[in-house]
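1st attempt posting a full record on here, be nice pls
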Amino acid sequence: MTTQAQSGPPAPSQQQAPAAPVQGIPMPQLVTAMLKAKAGVSDLIFSPGRAPQVESDGELVELKFKGLEMLLPAHTEMIAKELIGSAQHPAHKLETDGSADLSYAVSGLGRFRVNIFRQRGSLAIVMRVIPNDIPSFDQLGLPPVVGEIGDLRNGIALVTGPTGSGKSSTLAAVIDKMNRERAIHILTIEDPIEFLHRHKKSTVHQRELHSDSPTFALALRAALRQAPKVILVGEMRDRETIEIALEASETGHLVLSTLHTVDASKTIERIVGTFPLSEQHGIRVRFSKSFRFIVSQRLLPRKGGKGRVAVLEILKATMRTREYVEKGEGEGKSLLDAMRDGSNDGMQHFDAEIDRLIRAGIIDYETGLTYATNAGNLRLELADFAEEQAAAERRSPNKTGSFSGDPNETQVEIIR
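the predicted structure (as tokens):
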């Protein structure tokens, strides 16, 4: 298809060409074409000096559309204006802070969490894809114990991990389970709203930062007067939000939230470290009584490069884990030790899960070590597996010295 980008859905160009004069860019058509160009797209990226890009299975792929073979600063400026539209708050934030968060939707296609930011004097845009359908526990590969969060009546349950690790999807699946099974009032406070929850057995109200409330803390404080049983806070960003979340959990609410921490121990450190030293012991005591689950996530590339698999670490509140949270960890008394010994309670830790996936042939040995919490210990645990693999290679050597791949598999190359 050779239609110009400004008059219809763009099509990949067959050869490098100078960028067309900057005119209106129809974002719905462009976004639709980008999502259809590659399977499993998680992000769309617009950066000056490159063609539009999609991230698929953790790797960036350029898509050269006619007239947009290489984005100019004027192109990204135009795209930013199209995305912001008449919304005043993100326009003001971009002007004053150099970056802005907002949501964007294409009717019949899906929703996106958008960040527009200034770099090298020009604008760049990252759009995170939010699926229309809320993923199920089976689709996400979540262990059954995570479903217990949906049955809790009070306390705090946290889902943690780096950006793009699937925290929002996990919480959406938990909220959807509650929505289907319990007749309760659920309130979410998000920046921006991602998955849309329709009323089912529960009544679900979703508030968006800036359009519905100026801050997480104010919205959370107001939530205590809005009679919810469950409160989802998109992210516990600051001391005030953590303080009010603790208060809510102590007054009979179930609070769900996220943190950008890599594992359970770092999550406790982050929460406690947010407060002055004189208050930290009291926070430890309060959090030890309030927390119910800490679920930490990492997304690892599957063996062969076909998709990614979620690896979860799960810390559950027991007498032992509460004691370690309250009194701090020590030699032989770490949360990792508790998770190692807590399989009967549904607990698990990253390195044991990575070990299991390597042995099952789901992820590559070296990839698993790269993502491990303690690569040295995991290497020792996998010593027998590594020896078996080495022996198998000696029995069936690759004479070419390189991986040849599936000879029947068609390789599709996108023009770069």
